[in-house]
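ugh ok fine here u go
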Amino acid sequence: MGLNDTPSSERIHIGFFGKRNVGKSSVVNAVTGQELAVVSEIKGTTTDPVYKAMELLPLGPVMIIDTPGIDDEGMLGEKRVKKTRQILNRADIAVLVTDASRETDQVEEDLLALFIEKEIPYVIVRNKWDLLSEPFSVNEQECPVSALTGQGIHSLKEKIAHLVNTDVKNNRLVGDLLNPSDTVILVVPIDKAAPKGRLILPQQQTIRDILDAGAAALVVKETEFKSILDSMGQKPAMVITDSQVFARVSAETPEEIPLTSFSILMSRYKGFLEEAVRGVTAISRLKSGDKILISEGCTHHRQCDDIGTVKIPRWIREYLGVPVDFETTSGREFPEDLSGYSLVIHCGGCMLNEREMRYRMKCAQDQKIPFTNYGICIAYMQGILERSTRMLPSVSTYLK
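structure:
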């Protein structure tokens, strides 16, 4: 994906599901207009989920996901089916591809039930329509197509496009808290963990949202923050900092200036801010030997002082004064069974779409495991959580 492309987390995720040999990959290729997936008469050709970021008109930026057959067999088959089921947790739209020459069977009915249970908008594709001698009538959630001839593919794309309203999401990172011509100072450390030659995604997205609000973004390192703040003729409307330098920036920012972090704003944007604030108080109740899961939504080369695997565990042990255990996950791996943990601390989730972040939060809620994120965890331990969320009234009740 190029530097100017829409991030994966901001794309509508469309998962194509179905049994082996129903022409699922052929339908994907027909919809995308590309040879995205290998097709064959041999069952189980698709062995792992295939992702493709693209523009799908009239929907816009999407992530197409072709999945292995839901009826795959054997030990490897079970692992592939598990991966397919995991895709359901990040799919904004589900497409069930079936063979029009036969009735829907129990495996497919069970898959439909999962779509409904997880509240995923879906469409049922009746593929191989061109082979029917006597076509039958379909309901409004079905779409007859032929991946071979292209019949019905345009109608399928239109139906997919109308399953979600891209204008509904009104979540903002910070722009709705600003007025035109406001100035916001962004504190961005440039250390060993900073990517060479660029800013990380939450920083980029925050800058864009500030500009969309008609405000100005002033980006500085923590070492220059105090002198630049003191030199300003007018106080900034807000200071947003990287969580790793929260304590320093808080000490140098006058109390009357609103202060928060990129991570806290990202939890707001992804829809789990309130749960993260409610869950963070569990840190004070941790006991010796308790286990904490630290989960990141991306995979990256970890530096010697990595925030997730080194800094946060160290800060928590120092805060508690007792030994606790930590386990980490990264990327798309997230355990469904959280019963062995006393707390889940997640990154901001900038690389995950909102549906997946809500799924992870829901896994913790259902098992009554407290769930929070990096920025809120750090602010809590440093005694500045109330201050760093003061501008966000929806969480004030959890801090009393």
